[in-house]
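Example 3.2
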Amino acid sequence: MNIYSVGFHSVYDCGYKVRRETENGRYILILTKSRGKFEFGEAAVSLPAGIVVLYGCGYVRSYEADGEPFVCDWIDFEGDDDREFLDSLELEINRPIRFHDTDFISSLICNVASEFYSMNSRRVKMLDNLMKTLLMKLSGAGNRRENVQLSSEPHYSSLTDLREKIYRNPQMKWNVDSMAADVNMSRSYFQHLYSEVFGVSCMTDVISGKIEKAKEILSETSCTVSQVASMCGYDNEEHFMRQFKKIVGVTPTKYRHNR
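Structure, written as tokens:
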């Protein structure tokens, strides 16, 4: 897999806009690390951090800062020599995808950048292995991801900001009234619009955020189940255990042992 260039934590100042066609046989992979304005055909949307876009050849990529410098990781690569491998991954092309495990994706891009600019004698082989690992991760195997709706809805930006808060702060006592107040909407209108834009209810996202955080803590720490429940905003350990098993399929303890 031939890499032409790569950038890690690249910063684009306000006023600078990227708008160019992706060259024949090439792909451009972008991971947003701050908010940015993107265009996809006739749809213009403000995307938050944690969004991956894989542009295919011939597609015009267009993005710029959105009120503050735009930060992203990116890789410009060619995949014709690995066409069978790429096709087998069934990657989403030319549309934004939200991932909930972007730290690992970003670390892989950082490793690609370090290897790309090194003089390592095994540089080519290492880059090929890293790129395949990265693309397999993006294929969705074992990674929670979802399509981002390309919406002209005027409240889209405030709703995505709220959704980020929900996933960043699972310990908070989220409820419909507080979330509706956060975006200055009535309770009923907020519930309707949230489901329409994201395809799930706001409370489903609240629970998903808690469970994702719980899985992270169980995998990376030795905290007790009771401590995990508290850190994820549960007042009742038994309720946490029931909800975790219902969504994940196993108890928190078994999940930790299987990691």
